[in-house]
């Protein structure tokens, strides 16, 4: 192989490798969003879902605490029954750790103004009540009460219990329990371990809030970002697009509290150092469900939502939506640079709507990049007509999705070699290798095929500007879709081999593509090898990414042309290797993790023996 270091062939966008987030598989509620209480506002269509009431407990909505979440519970202890109260089961249990603190809060009032005692309890999965803390409620007006509970035990399936100890009546709403130790210690915060896993990917771009969830099962249940900002208690509940039959699995208890909403997404983007990429409904509901279409002459409110979103992110504090952002604690703009319109949509109905959005955005915010869609899958040519349409509309990027088998990923390492260089850029917005022979495990074959494919993304960085694996998260007890990048239960999380591939790219992107050839051609599958080379301008390092997908070691010599008098002086290799394609990581053991070893370098060439089934990132100092 030969690497030409004299002249980079393309710039690699700093935001190239990123993350795609969607509230699927309990990704937000029950996952990244650290709230431990399910149905905290009693707004689920069946208001006791998630709760087990005991004694005299009813749901009311007269004179509510929150106008957009009007239901609350009334607990009456009439002195005859021993106890009155309710248990919350959490999201497939409540995960608590011994010695960790949890912030309980509730809005409460006593209709007859008598002071009342509530007992707040943590119950383990053997039904033992191991922690009890009393709080007092008094007054006819709603008030927020809080208590910190230090858990005396560790349990992934604990419950929260609230008991009215004194005779009388108490109304309660928005009953909440968060770990004190959230990501960056924020109230209404994120699960620290999961957010850390995102941070560790070094993502350049952060796409949210989906996925199909943007579009909703119906237009009414599409993701409406305006409902996801402002006081968290008053964000109206929305159906989760993944809450019912998908591949015959029913999730009737899956709703969106929107507690992790647009403000929190922007804040997380900032924390991660990733460019936010919100995607917004274009007036078409999910194509796999109801397929509702907003008529063109009724599209204005949808377009206005997009314009207002840009104002929310970037507008001055004197603007309507900039003020909402400032009131939430972030007067500085979030510096939004791009927005996606529609997800996996096609046909003239989509193109017409995208055109209207694009014109309005260009007119008001000419520097904001617009991302269009190329339909649901790159599996065939059914949607090929969309690219010329995207070019005609002059969108900046086109979102391509591919959930294909490992062979497709290996075979498509040169997919972008011949893409139009004069049209929109590519956003590989959802992709994952699906190994159907193992029920789509996150196994090493899938991961290595993605690593191989990604050499082609990087080699073509002049046309491929963004890439995000999907989906991101899955709860081991509540998932609708696999494979996924990060799996978790209520206490632990597991980084898949696919995660480590993403991390190795994200941490080692480099700044410029260098030409790397074998026998005069890009290395895209010959002898089961895949390779790309980059320069990292700030450090002067050369970064090689090499995949050997074969079952035998491969000896390669890499000559570096254009070094002039410079020499390779030091190097290290971060690598993934496994002898079996089927190996997976589990919550108990991560069998596949990157390892690091030094690389012996000398002169202007490198001799390597690439292990079978391996992916290595070589950082070489010159
Ligand atoms: O990533 C899961 C789903 O796959 C997304 O919601 C959708 O865009 C795609 O079909």
UniProtKB/TrEMBL annotation:
It catalyses: Hydrolysis of terminal non-reducing alpha-L-arabinofuranoside residues in alpha-L-arabinosides. It is an enzyme of class 3 (hydrolase). Residues 429-614 form the Alpha-L-arabinofuranosidase C-terminal domain. InterPro entries: Alpha-L-AF_C (IPR010720), ASD1_cat (IPR055235), CenC_carb-bd (IPR003305), Galactose-bd-like_sf (IPR008979), GH (IPR017853), Glyco_hydro_b (IPR013780), Glycosyl_Hydrolase_51 (IPR051563). Keywords: Glycoprotein, Hydrolase, Signal. The keyword Signal applies. Pfam families: Alpha-L-AF_C, ASD1_dom, CBM_4_9. Its EC number is 3.2.1.55. GO terms for molecular function: alpha-L-arabinofuranosidase activity. One of its GO terms (biological process) is L-arabinose metabolic process. Belongs to the glycosyl hydrolase 51 family. This is non-reducing end alpha-L-arabinofuranosidase. It comes from Bacteroides oleiciplenus YIT 12058.
